[in-house]
Specification:
about 300 residues; mainly alpha; 9 helices; 4 strands
Length: about 300
């Protein structure tokens, strides 16, 4: 029997889609399956994911990637959350294999899937409805007008009841509305959790790749993670804080090195042009402007 989505995600502490190559297809234009067929595809995908999780736990990372890919092949390409989970899992496998570029690519695909999920028209519609309901739930007693159509049968409080709302015969409607809020809240928490995992994995991979651009990208990911602190474990929080302290110096050193290498290549190119005229770049002096980091060129002597 396939495990639940949450159990499958947590089994390997890591995180699939039919037509994997179609991942730029937007949910609004994707063909949607009937509920029964969609459920069957998800069940098939979850079974593959459970197998991949076990392979990951037994350090069979290459095999796990193959099985996660099979799980992706079963997921309808409009189920962005499930895709994001599997892509993040694949990124975790590539980290274990020290394939930093592949890890960055898969983690980025996971984050893009979450972005599409959060910006889809259906998500915005649900979000607006939930915000309205939550706003009503947080109002002071006796001022729960914001429940609108979901709770429009709730009777107004009497003068003697201390502001406690007396429901008419629609308690089931309120329970259903509140359950909808809680479900939306859980999904938001799940999205934040998977986003944090994907960001952690991409940031680490970029840090391992090294270089000015990659280190700068890692710093940006860690800065984003610092705003998700409530989602991070204590160990991840420590990693983020350490990286935020150490990366600026590493970035500065990488930038200086790459600028030096670039100037060396420019000098070599310049010598090729100047040689027919009996000149070389040594005939010129390069002076760095410490304020801007740029260089000016003048003649020696």
């Amino acid at each position: 029997m396939p495990t639940s989505r949450r159990e499958s995600e947590e089994a390997a502490d890591t995180e699939a889609r039919p037509g994997q190559e179609q991942e730029e297809l937007q949910p609004s234009s994707a063909i949607r399956f009937p509920p029964e067929e969609e459920a069957a595809l998800l069940s098939e995908s979850n079974a593959e994911k459970s197998t991949a999780n076990e392979l990951f736990k037994s350090a069979q990372y290459s095999q796990a990637i193959s099985v996660y890919d099979r799980a992706l092949a079963s997921v309808p390409n409009y189920l962005e959350y499930e895709i994001a989970v599997l892509k993040s899992n694949i990124a975790a496998c590539h980290l274990k294999l020290s394939d930093w570029k592949a890890a960055v690519d898969e983690a980025t695909k996971s984050l893009k899937a979450l972005d599409r999920l959060e910006t889809s028209p259906a998500s915005k519609s649900d979000g607006n409805e939930v915000e309205g309901l939550e706003g009503a739930r947080l109002q002071a007693p006796g001022k729960r007008n914001g429940l609108d159509k979901h709770l429009h049968h709730a009777a107004a409080p009497s003068k003697d009841d201390g502001g406690v709302v007396e429901l008419a015969d629609d308690e089931e409607n309120e329970a259903e509305a509140l359950e909808k809020i809680e479900k939306a809240d859980r999904r938001k928490d799940d999205i934040r959790r998977i986003r944090a995992k994907a960001l952690m994995r991409r940031a680490r991979a970029k840090s391992e790749q090294g270089g000015w651009g990659n280190l700068q990208g890692a710093l940006e990911d860690y800065q984003t993670l610092s705003s998700l602190s409530s989602t991070l474990s204590p160990s991840d929080t420590k990693i983020v804080n350490t990286a935020l302290r150490s990366l600026p110096a590493q970035i500065a050193a990488a930038k200086e090195k790459e600028m030096g290498e670039m100037m060396g290549k420019l000098k070599e190119l310049g010598n090729g042009f100047l040689k027919p005229f009996g000149l070389s770049t040594d005939s010129f002096k390069f002076e760095k402007d410490e304020k801007t980091g740029g260089y000016s060129i003048g003649m020696n002597g």
